[in-house]
Structure formats: structure tokens, C-alpha cells
């Protein structure tokens, strides 16, 4: 068969067969690399050709007349500079994975205090001071706590994270190097502590944070209190700040990689294959958390559903929703999202988010609400991943940690700290707009009112392990160890029923919350109050008008012509 009569397909096949196999392998490798480059959202070449490895500018969103920006944020060099991620992990997924598997966190040892909540739960408070990382520095004597003015930063970790997380250690080490104190408020059941009540934490449960902050403020009344929330912890923090408004002892806060709207984040994390991978990893972490506390979780929630959960939404449906007494998962997400509380934040708040965050999408950021609040500075970067923000060629530091540290240092030397102290009273009333209506964490009085215990006794601190290093056990330990730890905690904890109650109730405790509620309604609902007044005048005018007309007729009868009266 000559070439003229040959089939074009046979000629093509003959030509392809003459290509060396190594060239096909090279083409396959190149195709795979292009796919991987786009799948992992790597931006190495973008950084090289478009910015010359100078990084992208940090975008700031704030109120045009914000005093916080002009007096504090304007002095933060990092917020007005550029952020360049580490070139060899220039991908949100690579950064996030590197933080989880390697971290490169400093070696620090906390001192643990066990705190007993009003409902009988136990929270591990891990403290770190400058004497723990700097040689030659000694602790302050306990007799001088009331006069101690050393700033304290309360840190709230993310979902299923505790004080052992790499990003928490990075933050704590950076803060205490400035001579400050750091206390990591671990979520219930995390940090190697057993669940000692039927109460579990969730993304909208702020009562634990409120109780811990009030307790620390009572122990260190002269110390400025700051707070940093990360991921789910930032959602809890922002929601708490919005609930308490000016009545919080916190003088400054930072929310890093906040989810803002849990419903939007739930849709986002199930949108693409790479996001579904994060969803699965988070689900495994939640199942491990449930496994640690199986004895209680299996009694209160759907244990079979928990074991077979394939996503965070499935876990929330079988566990979180049931424990929190929510009707649906969406109602739990809507109720717990902090986006609706942003406008009520009344303390200086720095919010940091990466636009390429693979877990907490930028679509959920409440841009307009942040811009409308003079107390909020929103800093967004083009890259950074989730809680990573690695910088430098060696990837040993986190950009957001330095940004938060700089913001707090500038805030401490500003008038905002003194302004916050003037607003705070010696004793804070129980916030009325709290999350205690999430049930089962409510107390019903005989008169039908829903209340929460707001005064924490000093003996709520169950155990002081300040001389012992914090050891984070493996999450796969046998549950019997957790039971033994739980029994050990209960034996050392004084019963709340044994506390002597005052003979006469404090009238101020009863009046102040009601007065605060009336003030909040009058302040937040001015339009509604005027509208109600207009409706009242309109509906009662026929009766009032008739009575007024009759009164005027009798009063001015001698002045009105007889012809008009007969009409």
C-alpha cells in the first residue's frame, strides 16, 4: 500500500508511534504540573512576574471618620505595607497544610489552671508569662495581683484546636516577648480535659468566654484585657463583643480568619473537590473529639449518626444541633454566626482575613457592616491561607501574629485603653443579650425568667497546676483515662451547693439588668419607639379629639357664635 492510498489515521498512528516514550512521559508530567498548579492555586509565577516578589498591598476597610484608624491603625506599619507569602509554599493549601503538619512553632511550656464553670463544666486555662520564655524575669507575687497592670491577652483557639496548636504557640510566644501575659482559654473537652457536665461548646456559645473574662478581670482589675480569636474562636469572640457592647472588660481585640457567616461557609466548603477535602478533615477531627467523650456524647446525641458522618454538616446535624437544642442545622448556623453582631461591637477590633482562605471564604465577610462601625478595622490580604500567613524564605514567622502584636502595642499607648477603663464598672452586671438562649445552658426561675449565673466565685478555680508543665495527651487514648480524670476533678472541686447564700437579695443585681435592657431598647430601637408613638397617637385621636372638642366647647362657649355651636 502506497502513501497516497493509506488512511490518514494509520499515518497519524504511525507518526505517533515513532515518538519516543520519554517524550510522552514528559508531556504527562507537564500536564500534571499545570493541573496541580491550578488545583492548589499556586501563585509563584504571579508573585514573580506581577509583583516581583514584593507582595501585595494590605487592603484596609474602615469608617471614614474612625478615630481608631487615625490614632492607632495609622501607626501600624504592617497594616500599611505589603504581604508576601513564602515563595516555596505560595499556595493557600500548601500554607494551611504546612501549618498543620510542620508549624515550626517555638518550644514553650504553659502553666495550667483548671476553671470550674457555673454549670459544673471544666475549662483548661493555659497561662504563659515573660518569665517562661525570657531568662532572668520573675513572676509577680500573688499579693500584688490587684495592683498588677501587666496587659493580659485571652486567646480563643479554633475548631478542635487547643493551646498546643502551632499558630497558638506562635502568637503566645510573640505576645509574652513584649512583657505581657497570655492565657489560652481551651474549649470544653479539649486540652486533655474531660467533659464534666452535659454542656458542650459550639460556634455560638459565648457564655464560657464571658465567665472566664469576668473571672480574670476580677483577679487583675488594673490589668488591660485584650483578646484574640482564631477561626471559630474569632466567631465566638466577635459575637461576645457584639452581645456585651460597652459592658465588656476587653479594651481591644483581634479576629483572625473569622468565618463570619456559618451558612455561607457551609455552602462554600462543599462547593469544590479541594474544599470537600477540608470538610472531610474537619469532620474526622470532630469525630475524634466526640470519641474522647463518648460516654457523655452517646447519651445526649445521635452516636450512630456521629460515627457515620461524612461532613461537618452531618456532624452538626447529629451532635451540635441536638446538644444545642436547635431545630435544624441551618437555624444553628444562622443563630451562631457573628456577622449580625458586628454593628454592636463597641471596643477596638482588628479583623484579619485572607481572600484565598480555603475554609472561611471571603464571600462571608460583612464589608459594609465593618465599614459602618467606627470601632472596627478590617485588614484583608490577597494570599495567606487559613491561619497561616507564612512569610520570609525560611517560613518561621506568621504575618498575622506580627500584625496583631503591633496593633495591640499601638492600642495600649492610645487613649482607647483609658476610655475603655472608664466605661467599665467595678462589678459588671450579667449581659442581657447573651447566647444563653441556646439551651440547654439556661436556668429557669420560678417566675419564668431565663437567667444565667454572672458572678463567679473565686473557688471556681478547681486546681492550680502552675508548677506542672502542660502535657497534651494523644487524642486516641482510652476513654477510661478520661473517666478517671473526670472523677479526679470532681473530687477536688467544691460543690456549688455548699456555698453560703446571702440572707437578703441584692436589689442592685435585680434592677441593673432591667435598667440596662431599657437603655439598650431605647438606644437601639429609636425608630421603632417613634413609630409606636405615631401609631398610638393615630389610633387614639378619635377619642382624644372628641373629648378635646367637647372641652373646648364648654370652655369657650361664650366666645363661639351660637350659629357655629348649632352646627
TrEMBL record:
GO terms for molecular function: monoacylglycerol lipase activity; short-chain carboxylesterase activity. InterPro entries: AB_hydrolase_4_sf, AB_hydrolase_fold, Hydrolase_4. Keywords: Membrane, Transmembrane, Transmembrane helix. The chain crosses the membrane at residues 22-40, 527-552. It holds the Pfam family Hydrolase_4. Residues 152-361 form the Serine aminopeptidase S33 domain. It comes from the Eukaryota. Coiled coil: none annotated. Belongs to the AB hydrolase superfamily. AB hydrolase 4 family. PANTHER family: ABHYDROLASE DOMAIN-CONTAINING PROTEIN (PTHR10794), ALPHA_BETA-HYDROLASES SUPERFAMILY PROTEIN (PTHR10794:SF82). This is Serine aminopeptidase S33 domain-containing protein.
